[in-house]
């Protein structure tokens, strides 16, 4: 069947014109050769496709050709050439602005880093792929991305995080009935439980995986299952059973020509023989392991991978810098107008909500709903949604722009995820005399009420700094509390609303940092450090409280390369995971420490992916804000 298909494609290429159709046929023929295991023919064909695509400036065909060339080299164990071609694939995909192609390129690059045991780099690219899959609403791709990230955390020994991503992948695969990947999910979850010493769960998940692989003829997955069961029996010192499954795995891997599984299989057998005292077999099996290991991973490959990474990152940064230089700052005097607008619109929304409740009450009382009443409710609901959506635009106008933040704190990330269309959480920034003031704030409530309070609190911060000229962070919070209470007291009613906040003052010249907090702490990690340092906040809000105290100002002598984190409580308070529990601060701290050496933009992507994986199908419980700044 393969031969017949290949012959037909070869004939089409011989008689075809030098056009885009020929490129497509060449790429199809490449796939046929790959499926047939004819890698040399596949490489020759893919190079033809690439050359013709470049000649005709057919970027789509060129991207596909680079992708196939990279995959061929990866299959042959030549990681250096594999990554060179996959970065070329990525460039083409970005030029096409094709999110699906770009996500695939990220996955291919991550696979190569995985093969080099560079797990942090692999997570970086898998996470970028995940973000694009979300935008595309690609459930199959999302499931794969969650699984890939889980695997990297598994390999890194971060088992709880691995389970979060594996279980989210499993949910999606069960939903779309992707049997092959369901089997992989079960196997991966089983492996994590094995690392945790929960052997009963390992049997349960491995049996599910092998059953599906046998049922649908997924031989590669079956081979992996044999290796996993061999490992399980080895850990339990059931050596006879372990040997049986390792032998099955090697036999299957040889039939597949799968070098990675052959490497793992021989290493596993060498360990088993050592435990049995059969040192002659140890030598034989370890020798075979070294042969396959060295063919897949050598110093020249590793060096070339790093060179290609540096080359791509440099070009990417230059492109971003060129693009950003064309942007103009937004007109800042609109902020005040927008703040008033948010308040007015929010009041109108509140009035509309009350009217809508009355309309619904009338409909509930009546035994039969008339079409006129139905249309009235739908119209009211549309008005409310339209008003809230417009309010979102106004609320965004009072927030500092991303360009503004990047200008004064260039190395940063902002993870801002409102629960509703508008939010009680907000972030705030002012820059005066080489000093930047930046804050993450959580106003009382969320949605429309929270947004109304956020306008009052943001305005009070602006006045404390600009009108009253305060520069000490503790005194800024003292004055902000005074102004917020003053605003609410005008109503004549007792209003206990206010905000929690983490406020930082950063001197760009000396790197001196001053910080004050109302209920929300400051976290920071020293450059090259491996632990999170916490500065506790005053246990009082910006608002009405019993026995109010002056806010404490903490001055920190930090160094260039240190990283600070400001946040609200939305992320750690999110329910999710296998048991529907809160994420909690401890797990958030562990994640930030584990990824502290990554670029901040990558830390944001990882936080986003982890939050979505943890939350799963559950409702987001609160607004989420986390700000990271590297000095």
Description:
This protein has 631 residues and is α+β, with helices and mostly antiparallel strands. It folds into three domains: 1-116 and 297-326, Tetratricopeptide repeat domain (Serine Threonine Protein Phosphatase 5, Tetratricopeptide repeat, Alpha Horseshoe); 332-398; 401-630, PPM-type phosphatase domain (Phosphatase 2c, domain 1). Helix content is 66%, strand content 10%. The protein has helices spanning 2-15, 20-35, 39-56, 59-75, 79-96, 99-115, 119-136, 139-155, 159-176, 179-195, 199-216, 219-235, 239-256, 259-276, 279-296, 299-324, 334-365, 371-398, 402-408, 447-467, 473-489, 585-594, 600-615; strands at 412-417, 425-432, 435-443, 499-507, 512-518, 522-525, 533-535, 554-557, 563-567, 575-576, 581-582, 624-630. The protein has a five-stranded antiparallel sheet with strand order 1-12-9-6-7, with helices on both faces. Strand 2 and strand 3 form a beta hairpin. The longest helix has 32 residues, at 334-365. The radius of gyration is 29 Å and the shape is globular. The chain starts with a helix and ends with a strand. The model is unreliable at 328-338 and 345-349 (pLDDT under 50).
